[in-house]
Every structure is written in structure tokens, then in C-alpha cells.
Amino acid sequence: MKYARLSKEQFEELHEEFINFLASQSITGDEWEDIKINKPKVAEEELDVFSDLVWEGVLTQARFLEHFSPNQIYLFKITELTINLIAVKVENEEVDITTREGYTWLQQNLMDERVSLYTSSKAISEDRNKDIFALIQQGAVITKGELYEFFEKHLGL
Q1: Which of 125, 91, 110, 94 is nearest to 155 (CA)?
Q2: How far apart, in whole angstroms, are the C-alpha atoms of residue 83 and residue 121?
Q3: Can you give the pLDDT of all 157 residues of the chain as single tens digits?
């Protein structure tokens, strides 16, 4: 398995796609029930293959990621060759930007001396999707990139 098995909730959400996946392998509903009971290892392998296919599709489409912690925001833009980072750090222990109040404080105090903005860029490895998945495993989520683009304009990048 290259990535991670989907959760029970994710499998439920992708129920129709999983049925189509099984059908593409000529596995009927009855055969799947039989495999789950009599060949649990084969069933596990099928779940893993499907999970990797889903992850591969999602990661291939990913262009922006965000990761929030109480005093930092990491905004990532994935291009063909690089992963670009805009980091926002709040050095005010009274502010937790993962809360509505803290995020509002950040919006109103972006130019405050306790707010630092950093940028960085690194080359994508040979396995772009694995690079993105590693960021997701660390807590990043895929987004449409509005926040990244806001800061990109603000910083004049």
C-alpha cells in the first residue's frame, strides 16, 4: 500500500465508486461477500488497492494545502516543479489562530510586529504525490488556495 487505507466513513461515501471498482475486476456483490468471509486477506488487499487509487486521483488534482496550528499557518502551493510555502507566525501567546477570535485578531493585526510572514520553496521529488501525502499526514488539508493567493498578493509574490 502506497498511501493509507480510507476510513470506514470514506468507504461509505465512495460506496458507488467501490462497487464500480469491484465490477471492473468482474467481482459481483455476492462474490465480494464471499471474499470478505472466506478470504479476508484478499478483501483487505482489494480495500488497499482501491484506497491507493482514490488517493492517487485526489493527490494528482491537489494544488493547494493549508495547515493551521495555534500560532502558525502553513500555506502550500504545488506547481509542476516546486512546493511553495507561505508561513504566518503569530508571536502573541494570547492568540490562538485556530479559534474564530484568534483568526479575527490575525486578520485585524496582519501588520502587527508580532506577526511574521515567511516564504520558502523546495523542489518536488520524483514522487510528487508522495510529497503531498506526507504534508497531509502531518495535518495539512487540500484547499482551493484562496488564503494562499491572498497572502501571495499581499507579499507581492
Answers
A1: 110
A2: 6
A3: 899 999 999 989 998 999 999 999 899 888 999 999 999 999 999 999 999 999 999 999 999 999 999 999 999 999 989 999 999 999 998 999 999 999 999 999 988 999 999 999 999 999 999 999 999 999 999 999 999 999 998 887 6
